Amino acid sequence: AIERTLSIIKPDATNRNLTGKINAKFEDAGLRIVAQKRIKLSMEQAGKFYEVHKERPFYGELCEFMASAPVVVQVLEGENAIAKNREVMGATNPANADAGTIRKEFALSVGENSVHGSDAAETAAQEIAFFFSGLELVG
Ligand code: CMP
Predict the structure, then answer these.
(1) What would the pLDDT profile of 44-100 be if each residue is shown by its tens digit?
(2) How many Å lie between the centroid of ligand 1 and the Cα of residue 33?
(3) Which residues are annotated as a binding site for ATP?
(4) Which residues form the Nucleoside diphosphate kinase-like domain (predicted)?
(5) Is the CB of residue 103 less than 8 Å from the CB of residue 114?
(6) C-alpha dihedral over 133, 29, 69, 47, to 10 degrees?
(7) What would the pLDDT profile of 8-41 be if each residue is shown by its tens digit?
(8) 61 within ligand 1 shell (Cβ under 6 A)
(9) Global pTM?
(10) Could you give the ipTM of this predicted complex?
(11) 20, 37, 56, 111: least buried by Cβ within 10 Å?
(12) Which residues are annotated binding-site positions?
């Protein structure tokens, strides 16, 4: 089915001017960028977005990192977009990521791992609504 998923190009990648190279990976995989904006998250916004990880030992570090520099938030659309995006991203830890994936090519560490992607249909809908209004989604 045609799905939409929320993607974030993280501070380690925007700092290294990798937005275009990462977007090319999405487009080459057949994912269409139907909404996109570059924003700087506050600590509060980062904390709210990652609230599900609140009890994890890396939560504070994760929020500080996500608020440290601009991010590009985007909605990707396509056939099986949620799973396809996860394939294109590769494993969370770049040490475990397959060749050709975004994280294998660009990520620095499990924390500075260049991209975020929704993990399921329900979280995709929640995460898209966190950043975008319906008017901003142009299929
Ligand atoms: P993401 O898909 O954005 O969702 C939660 C993030 O937490 C994950 O990517 C990683 O970047 C980050 N993360 C997971 N494990 C660790 C860890 N051990 N140390 C720091 N960050 C982590």
Answers:
(1) 999 999 999 999 999 999 999 999 999 999 999 999 999 999 999 999 999 999 999
(2) 24
(3) 10, 58, 86, 92, 103, 113
(4) 2-139
(5) yes
(6) 60
(7) 999 999 999 999 999 999 999 999 999 999 999 9
(8) yes
(9) 0.97
(10) 0.93
(11) 20
(12) 10, 58, 86, 92, 103, 113
